[in-house]
Structure prediction request, 1138 residues.
Amino acid sequence: MKKILFFLGLSALVMSSASISSAAQNFILCMEGSPASFNPQLVSDGVSMNASSQAVFNRLVEFKKGTTEIESGLAESWTISKDKKTYTFKLRKNVSFHANDFFKPTRGFKADDVIYTFKSQMDTKHPLAIPAANYEYFKAMELDQLIAGVKKTDDYTVVFELKRAEAPFLADLAMDFASIQSEEYATALTKNGKGLKTLEIQPIGTGPFVFKSYQKDSTIRYKAFDQYFRGKPKIENLIFVIVADSTVRLQKMKNGECNVMTEPQPQDLEQIAKMPNLKLVSTEGINVSYIAFNTQKKPFDNLKVRQALSLAMNQKSYIDLIYRSQGTAAKNPIPPTMWSYNKATAANVFDIAKAKALLAEAGFANGFETELWTLPVSRAYLPNGKKLGELIQADLAKIGVKIKLVTYDWPVYLEKSKRGEHQMIQFGWTGDNGDPDNFMNVLLGCSAVKAGSNYARWCNEEFDTLLQKAKVDSTPKARTAFYEKAQVIFTREKPWYPIAHAKLNKVISNQVTGYKIDPFGHEQFESVDLK
Amino acid sequence: MSILNNTLKIILSFLFISLMSFSIIRLIPGDPVTNIIGERGASEERIQEVRKNLGLDKSVFEQYAIFTKNALVGDFGESIVTKQPVWNDFKVLWPATFELSILAILWSSIAGLALGVLAASKRNSFWDYGAVSLSTIGFAMPLFWWGLLVIFFFAVTLGWFPVSGRISVEFDVPYRTGLFLIDSLLSGQFAAFFSALKHMALPAFVLGTVSLALIVRVTRSSFIDIQKEDYIRTARAKGLQPSQILFKHIFKNALPQILTALGLAFGQLLTGAIMTETLFSWPGLGRWIVKSIEARDYPAVQAGLFYSMVVIVLINFVTDEMIKVVNPKMRDNVKL
Amino acid sequence: MMKNKSFVIGLCLFLFFCAMALLAAFWTPYSYQEVFEGASLLKPSARFLLGTDDLGRDLLSRLMVGAQLSLGIGVLVGGFAVIVGASLGIISAYYGKKLDEFLVQIMNGIQALPSLLLALFVVAILGGGIFNTILSVTLVSIPVMFRLVRSSAMVEMSKDYIVAARAVGASDYRIIKSHLFPNCITPILVQSAVCCSEAILNTAALGFLGLGIPAPYPEWGTMLSDSKNFIETAPQLMTIPGLCLLLLILSTQLISDGLRDQLDPKLRGRS
Prediction:
């Protein structure tokens, strides 16, 4: 007993002195989950992307920090042919890859690495493709059906041939799965017996930080890469600490155990803003949350019912209470920061009398009973689906519509809704590449009904034709016109009740300088420093 | 009992445990593929492709056969989420839970024994009332609430302990046993040892609460019982020192009951670990199993269940044998 | 002496929560679902005696309805555990042999998993909802009841009067009803209170993990997990439901301890 007390006391002493000495060069990010893999080609969640592609890798083209604009990455410049089917990239010279305990690169980055990166994802029989890997994201963006071939004309020039013109292609290349892997590393792994699986646990890239170690579910460590082509990052040791519970994460932040914290809960923000040693940074997210009406089911096939329910929902209270004002009221399927957003469409109106009248016209003067499925997971676009459900339930009760709240855990929720078993359902979407096609076609296109991501199961020919036209055309002006028109149809037909575009928030400590919040939710630390 | 009988029992237990761990997760609707695909949705062909890659296209019997065959040699396959052998995850996670459990049991049994003996020897005193109330409240305590209060008070308000995690980030302890307390000493990093200990203090405190209650209770009641026995009276009449009576007679006779309680407490720790690990972001098995269930990570859940069932069966077996050896007459209604 | 006092305290607490739940059936200050606009996170006041939650709902009303849920589930599960667990225990002890071995193995099987994990699985397999939650929590509590009752019944079985009754040719039903059951009533009563408290705890734990009782029901565990983010801004939101939970569980345990003392003189003085 006494001994333990003695140890505890001693440990307190030792600790308090130890933590001061080495704090200056450590930069700590406290985040909400563990990465699934360190190979950006195989991951689809934000946490894994931050841990792999953003810290360790670069892409041919990249999103300009803090925006959705494309800028040069490992490609210095590029040209697009007249028929929009050939893209030629000039690669940057003198870019080095990282080294680790068992791999020392003998050459810098060149065309072979680009070819390897894409060919291995296109062809599962490629000798350097990871066995049994599925390259989910690459296929989800349909690049396997788009790219006809990749070849090099010299060591620093790569040419992509496409099967058809596709406007969002360049944006696709800036996405995480397109991160450039080292061909030399992959070859070495197959030769030294470590195997390609090692790409998932010990990544080698060209990025600002070198991967050092990962303690499962606990800490990831990186070191600044002194040969980084944009210049060595200012922080020496980058450490990601995994803290699943949002309350605990905030307490850690307050205790000075983190420099940056992801996903603060909306209700904590007010309090955080008042704290002298913490700073709140936010940006408009590229996301949307919505209630989808299953238009294949009665009574939601009736436009009047959809209109009536939309009128009865008090959007303002959802923004106030669920998002704690950290969101913008939505009316279109795409967020206002995205190009081609149509400002002129009608906003959601809250009018119970009119809702009742419309409901009566539709033949439901006494209302009806239905189900609302509430999102079982907390997402950036919707922090608490259950509570939103409770608010909607109370609102719709006022026009006589009795809502039963239903929820399943995430895989079941996805499976059942994909089959269209729902009536009304909460969902949302975070954009992959900042292109409107990535919202409207994925979520409301006719082909998405079969794929399951069109949860309203709404297929409107007029709307879909506009989307297809916009996809092929690549002048931004023409595309904008098509998308703006599509949004008018959307607000008229009301397949969804759009709820909000959530702001993205991060909490940083006062010592952090140069931190820019990214609309995709990525964490980038190459230009960050501590005061 | 013959050796044959015992072997049969072990084989049956293995079959039962493997069947349970295999089937429970598959009984839950929703499969890993849907989870991988997420909000995006996918065509039927793509889903079939992913299923095939995961080996889920085979019949259930085939899958079970593969699972048991591999489990026999300790191979639990590859996690669907991390795509790494389950063993890789397992070997770093179980020491975390083990270390935490040991510390929790250690403090709760030392404190529990001390309090229990104190309460029994000074019946109806302040100490007795205090110990009994403490144990009653501890037994009723919802751990998830208690954990939050403890974090809020000791870590946030007083700032005595870190909020969560296993060790301070500036220490990078090389993996040897996976137990930070041992690894840090092996590599000669004493500061790391204390850091690990300090991080462990609050979660171990919370996790040990229920065990403490149980041990106080059992120690006190068995001491009181034994004090009434004739041979203690005789010993007293003979004029033996009270301390001698306490340790030579009472303690020795109360031991089986206390050991049983310890076994019980240890078995219950995994339940407590689920909550405690979630609250303190402790990278251990409890949290891992719950997360793997959510992701329908079949191989991970199978391995986790297999392990926890083996541990529980072993603990039950050991305590049962102990009772038989120490005191064949004892009934199994110690409490709970 | 002390035990009697704590039994009385336990009973008083329990009755207090019963009264609260009963009152909630007829009257609550407001509807537990009613959202007051602009009333989010209010401090306790004359209008809202315990303040409001983040959506602007009256905490007291929710707490009262929550008491109904927790108590209801606790009592129901205690009852089910008696019906299923105790009768199986007696039958197992009475008929012995193969049936006994079989039942014991089944119970071992159920107990092979940590209780919370098992409850979690059952809810995940069957889906959430009040009924399924009760089912899962009951399943978890049966084996302990079974073991206790079985071992008490076994002790009785070896006694002369049962052997005699059997020799005389009394029917199985008669022996169980008039000899075995009355002699097992003490462990049954004591353990049913324990089952009740475990059920309340497990339900709340499931709620805290986001499973179990679905929205919009204000189950205490769910209320706790909903409000843990407000630990500093509105501490009453998490301290009060937590305290209620603790007190309710405490009351059932005090009752079970008291019952043991009162009904089983042999055990008096033990915990």
Summary: Residues 330-336 of chain B have pLDDT under 50 and may be disordered. Chain B touches chain C through 51 residues (CB under 8 Å). The radius of gyration of chain B is 24 Å. Residues 35 and 294 of chain B are 9 Å apart (CA to CA).
